[in-house]
Amino acid sequence: MSKPVKQVHLGAAFPGVNSHTVWSDPRSGSQIDFSSFRHLAQTAERGKFDLFFLAEGLRLREHRGKIFDLDVVGRPDTLTVLNALAAVTDHIGLAGTVNATFNEPFELARQFATLDHLSGGRAAWNVVTSSDAFTGENFRRGGFLAHADRYTRAAEFVDVARKLWDSWEADAVVADAGAGVFVRDGAIAEVRHQGPQFDITAHPTVPRSPQGHTVLIQAGNSSDGREFAAATADAIYTIHAELKAGQTFYADVKDRLAKYGRAREDLKILPQATFVLGDTEAEARERARHIRLQQVTPQGAIAHVEQVWGRDLSGYDPDGPLPDLEPLTEGVNITRDRARHHHDPLAVARRWREVAEAKKLSIRELVIELTGRYAFTGTPARVAADINAYVQGDACDGFIISGHLTPTGLDEFVDTVVPELQERGAFRTEYEGTTLRDHLGLAPAPHRGVAA
């Protein structure tokens, strides 16, 4: 008996900055104007995607004591954008990345419950954490968490949010022809929570939303992150995209679910990926090479290497070899916020030199090699076949896809790759449910009550 075809789940990510988008292309639009968000979300909905995914940026990066100008595009408030998109879309899920370190459960639970109501059950929260004191300077309590404590706070945060979402019974709001709309007596529980991170007593102001609980996404690949996802999340946004690495990650996370009383289908694994299409394989490869050269500019490549070396390397040729001097190891703060490297700079430099020497790469070519997200490259039929192979081969349950242009980068994928997936019977031709949980094949969120 043949194995049933698994359905591919797809999310559309709004393109970021730096080496993730070609902001210099004349076709590139604004990353803050609402029309850009609307275009991408409506294009993804036209393609029957599960969700639209919006990242979060809480502080502009600084490099060598100045705002890093290649990173300045603006990042409006996530929830404001998603609430606006709820009014101009009908089906697609609306997922927002919001930090659990710098927010409070009552406020965030209320905001996501509101989005779920306004969208008719399409809200998702990508739970992220931070131990970054630089970003924390924007907030009253600052970057007060040790790196190891991030998930401790996040787990308690989610626990409190769920209690708040469960404080209203499903039929708490009653419509009465004579008296109007009122709340049934005893249908709202008081939420009392005392823990290491939060101590609150509350009567939430928003009724239980269409999904009950907002869909929870977790972005993290560490062992702690995987365990947090297995215990808490409905989906994981991950960077594992190579087939073998994806299969290993998939098996590891899915195997953790049983101890929390969860089934394997209760958690979807969605790696990030991009794509480059062409009429032929050769054309797609050449187009991919050209795009990467646009994404990683000469000055961007030098700045990337400076993050590890901790030195001013502006005198070096980006098309030349890596510096022959060693990185500084103490008292270095050349890049603030979103620096990519937290490990021993000498070890990182040694590994980079090995890669550069083995592949005969210049500084810029090396940075292109190191910073590229996984890209499906080829004809539409080839890309659809490759995506389907990952899902059927248990390397993931689908992908969070982004293009290289804002906001039209997804158009070509929707017009050419999605029909190929539909022909294979691996992707929906119409939405069959109304909520994001329906799209992802997740069970309705149970009402757990509010016991401490």
From TrEMBL:
<feature type="domain" description="Luciferase-like">
    <location>
        <begin position="27"/>
        <end position="392"/>
    </location>
</feature>
<dbReference type="InterPro" id="IPR051260">
    <property type="entry name" value="Diverse_substr_monoxygenases"/>
</dbReference>
<feature type="binding site">
    <location>
        <position position="151"/>
    </location>
    <ligand>
        <name>FMN</name>
    </ligand>
</feature>
<dbReference type="GO" id="GO:0016705">
    <property type="term" value="F:oxidoreductase activity, acting on paired donors, with incorporation or reduction of molecular oxygen"/>
</dbReference>
<protein>
    <submittedName>
        <fullName>Xenobiotic compound monooxygenase, DszA family, A subunit</fullName>
    </submittedName>
</protein>
<comment type="similarity">
    <text>Belongs to the NtaA/SnaA/DszA monooxygenase family.</text>
</comment>
<dbReference type="InterPro" id="IPR036661">
    <property type="entry name" value="Luciferase-like_sf"/>
</dbReference>
<feature type="binding site">
    <location>
        <position position="97"/>
    </location>
    <ligand>
        <name>FMN</name>
    </ligand>
</feature>
<feature type="binding site">
    <location>
        <position position="222"/>
    </location>
    <ligand>
        <name>FMN</name>
    </ligand>
</feature>
<dbReference type="Pfam" id="PF00296">
    <property type="entry name" value="Bac_luciferase"/>
</dbReference>
<keyword id="KW-0560">Oxidoreductase</keyword>
<dbReference type="GO" id="GO:0004497">
    <property type="term" value="F:monooxygenase activity"/>
</dbReference>
<keyword id="KW-0503">Monooxygenase</keyword>
<keyword id="KW-0285">Flavoprotein</keyword>
<dbReference type="InterPro" id="IPR016215">
    <property type="entry name" value="NTA_MOA"/>
</dbReference>
<feature type="binding site">
    <location>
        <position position="147"/>
    </location>
    <ligand>
        <name>FMN</name>
    </ligand>
</feature>
<dbReference type="InterPro" id="IPR011251">
    <property type="entry name" value="Luciferase-like_dom"/>
</dbReference>
<keyword id="KW-0288">FMN</keyword>
